[in-house]
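User: Sequence recovery, please. Input:
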């Protein structure tokens, strides 16, 4: 990540570390909650979350996004963003609360009404926290952001949600966990990054801020539709039980994905705003990140797809086995989701913020028709369509990012071929290991044997043939794991910034 410099690398490291810790906490909490509550309760909560994520786009509107995109900030910028975040947050909270009966009626699930009503409070909490959160991102203070995320999740889910679930509170335990997490995050972010809270309804740059907010809002609406059409139609056409199975599988599939995207995207967006006039360095960083995804993330998610059935059996138990097939399909599409996620900051940092919204509209239309016609066939059909949509979005946004950086897609071909070789090797290794113990029908043994086999083969390959990673990926790995430098540097020269851009095949 030479294009971002040491501050950008440090930000990614802190973001990755905090995301990894949160991943462990989230996995543990979700396993306990899923085993305790079951698919039906998770389906009811999922309905509330679909409504909440949609409402959050209205409550946020993107006023705070300008705080991280602008090269310079004034006190008026912060006051204006905070004022309108709070106003729209309160308005959205009231609207969601009043519409809760109608929304529950749409999903044909009256038990979802009180869940939606309580979750409406989160609209205000997340909106009020947005300015402080954005200012921390602007400072590349991902150490503080990471600690807040870990502590707020631990307090919300481990200290409140899990005990309430064990005491029989059902879906309300999930609601309470979410609200407590949001409240703790609000207090902590403001305490670490205090700012003036004196209202400011308008100032000279207000039109520009609203312009950015409009772009963010439209983009978020399209992204929300693409990310939630599957759950909307499952909840409407099937039932809460099916939605619970699908939603848990989706959450598990995105956990490791969040480990990558949660670490890379915020740091890239924040640091990239400082490189808006240094297109070559921005292109170097982008190519390097996509290379890591193609070479390392693709084989990793293929491995996770192969062990999905064992994971579901061990972690969630017999009543969740229906989620295993869905989990496999979604795991296979997660590398595409990460590529989409690291491509969007390129457009925002190169003055193309409206392209993310416009380019994804055709994908949204095609996805809507596909979900409408095939959702009745069950969650397997929905999972396949959702996976194909993620791949389509990655292709569309990746090509747009390459055009913005004046790079050719051919620069990614060597990295894709390396990822293909590693993926085939992973596939053969894991299937062979699973076949060896298949007669015993022991999910734990199958998981352990296949995991050890995959790790051993990959480690041996790095020792024998470190060039398989390529210069871009090897340089990134060394930055995060310096102890591997001696192995990976054999026969691999670390590229400089100019060399990295050269590997990106800059168009004449």
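Assistant: Recovered sequence (508 residues):
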């Amino acid at each position: 990540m030479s294009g971002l410099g040491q501050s950008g690398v440090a930000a990614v490291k802190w973001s990755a570390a905090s995301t990894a810790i949160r991943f462990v906490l989230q996995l543990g909490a979700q396993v306990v909650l899923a085993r305790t509550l079951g698919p039906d309760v998770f389906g009811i909560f999922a309905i509330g979350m679909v409504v909440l994520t949609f409402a959050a786009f209205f409550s946020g509107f993107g006023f705070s996004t300008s705080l991280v995109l602008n090269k310079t900030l004034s006190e008026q910028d912060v006051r204006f963003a905070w004022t309108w975040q709070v106003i729209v947050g309160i308005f959205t909270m009231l609207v969601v609360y009043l519409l809760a009966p109608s929304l529950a009626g749409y999903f044909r699930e009256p038990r979802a009404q009180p869940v939606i009503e309580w979750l409406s409070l989160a609209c205000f909490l997340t909106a009020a926290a947005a300015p402080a959160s954005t200012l921390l991102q602007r400072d590349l203070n991902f150490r503080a952001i990471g600690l807040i995320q870990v502590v707020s999740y631990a307090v919300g889910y481990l200290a409140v949600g899990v005990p309430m679930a064990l005491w029989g509170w059902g879906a309300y335990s999930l609601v309470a966990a979410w609200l407590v997490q949001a409240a703790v995050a609000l207090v902590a972010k403001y305490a670490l990054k205090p700012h003036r809270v004196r209202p400011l309804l308008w100032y000279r740059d207000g039109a520009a801020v609203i312009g950015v907010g409009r772009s963010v809002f439209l983009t978020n609406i399209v992204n929300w539709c693409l990310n939630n059409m599957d759950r909307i139609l499952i909840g409407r056409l099937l039932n809460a039980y099916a939605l619970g199975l699908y939603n848990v599988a989706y959450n598990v599939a995105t956990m490791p994905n969040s480990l990558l995207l949660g670490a890379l995207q915020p740091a890239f967006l924040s640091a990239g705003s400082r490189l808006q006039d240094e297109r070559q360095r921005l292109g170097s960083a982008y190519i390097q990140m996509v290379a890591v995804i193609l070479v390392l993330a693709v084989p990793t998610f293929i491995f996770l797809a192969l062990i999905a059935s064992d994971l579901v059996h061990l972690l969630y138990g017999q009543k969740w086995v229906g989620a295993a097939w869905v989990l496999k399909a979604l795991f296979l599409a997660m590398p595409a989701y990460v590529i989409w996620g690291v491509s969007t900051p390129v457009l925002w940092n190169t003055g193309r913020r409206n392209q993310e919204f416009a380019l994804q509209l055709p994908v949204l239309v095609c996805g809507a028709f596909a979900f409408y016609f095939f959702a009745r066939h069950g969650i397997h059909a929905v999972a396949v369509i959702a996976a194909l949509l993620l791949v389509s979005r990655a292709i569309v946004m990746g090509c747009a990012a390459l055009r913005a950086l004046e790079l050719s897609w051919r620069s990614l071909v060597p990295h894709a071929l390396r990822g293909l070789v590693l993926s085939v090797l992973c596939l053969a290794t894991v299937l062979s290991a699973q076949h060896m113990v298949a007669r015993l029908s022991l999910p734990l043994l199958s998981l352990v044997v296949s995991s050890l086999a995959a790790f051993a083969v990959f480690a041996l390959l790095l020792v024998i043939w470190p060039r398989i990673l390529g210069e871009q990926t090897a340089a990134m790995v060394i930055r995060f794991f310096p102890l591997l430098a001696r192995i990976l540097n054999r026969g691999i020269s670390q590229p400089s910034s100019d060399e990295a851009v050269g590997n990106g095949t800059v168009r004449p």
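The two ends are 24 Å apart (CA to CA).
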